[in-house]
Inverse folding.
């Protein structure tokens, strides 16, 4: 009997220690996964931050939001678009340059962030090779506010979906601004396919000025596939399509490629180029930018 008791008591103590340890670990895990208590004025601790996710460099927006109480800046050092239009017997070369494009994000809640998008300096130039007429306009760009709400998958799971309504403010009209209120809604989706592969897609409905006091409806749809390449370098390829059925304007198709380089957990460089695959789309659109979180 004595021998049996000496054997049982250590086993019971071990079982109690294991059970207590499991309870503590489970409680910590639950607390770590429950981030709903954090907000703008009670920031998410650094140890609980999700991986850096940006809405650039591809045209497909991310469904993931900035963690509550944190800020993220995504900027274009330069973004240029070039087009040669020979439709209707014409011969017009045009170029658009945007410098200092900023998307400033604020994490309001665990699943909600607020974004302000603007360009510091935009230059629009065109030259008609037939008439010899040249035009050049430059100004501060438009300002847009976007609210991103993650519907699921922000912190766990292989899929994620978001909803993002936005509005562009009616700043005074200039050579690079139409001075009209415009807006829309975006539904971005993401899928982790494993093995370093990721898929993103979105559907977007825009309400844009028709120039006569009303608005046309445009539809913008994208799908992108990305993969880790080597070390901190990753790449993607993307297809995008813009349709404007009201005006019977030819749809615009784009094939896009780009790369990202992760400097650290909060900083990322990117570059790439979007190529028009239909006559109505700009010919090509190179860009180079940086994103960082704090």
């Amino acid at each position: 009997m004595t021998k049996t008791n000496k054997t049982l008591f250590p086993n019971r103590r071990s079982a109690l220690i294991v059970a207590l340890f499991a309870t503590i670990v489970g409680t910590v895990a639950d607390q770590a996964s429950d981030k709903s208590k954090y907000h703008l004025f009670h920031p998410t601790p650094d140890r609980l931050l999700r991986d850096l996710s940006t809405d650039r460099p591809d045209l497909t927006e991310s469904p993931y939001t900035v963690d509550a109480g944190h800020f993220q800046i995504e900027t274009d050092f330069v973004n240029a678009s070039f087009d040669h239009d020979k439709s209707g017997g014409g011969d017009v070369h045009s170029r658009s340059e945007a410098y200092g494009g900023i998307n400033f994000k604020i994490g309001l809640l665990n699943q909600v962030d607020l974004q302000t998008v603007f360009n510091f300096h935009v230059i629009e130039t065109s030259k008609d090779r037939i008439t010899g007429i040249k035009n050049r306009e430059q100004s501060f760009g438009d300002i847009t506010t976007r609210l991103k709400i993650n519907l699921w998958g922000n912190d766990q799971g292989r899929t994620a979906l978001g909803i993002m309504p936005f509005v562009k403010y009616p700043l005074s009209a200039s050579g690079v601004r139409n001075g009209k209120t415009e807006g829309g809604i975006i539904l971005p989706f993401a899928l982790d396919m494993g093995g370093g592969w990721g898929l993103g897609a979105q559907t977007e409905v825009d309400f844009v000025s028709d120039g006569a006091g009303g608005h046309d409806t445009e539809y913008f749809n994208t799908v992108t596939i990305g993969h880790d390449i080597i070390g901190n370098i990753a790449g993607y390829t993307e297809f995008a399509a813009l349709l404007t059925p009201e005006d019977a304007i030819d749809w615009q198709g784009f094939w896009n490629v780009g790369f990202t380089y992760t400097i650290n957990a909060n900083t990322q460089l990117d570059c790439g180029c979007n190529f028009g695959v239909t006559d109505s789309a700009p010919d090509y659109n190179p860009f180079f930018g940086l994103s960082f979180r704090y």
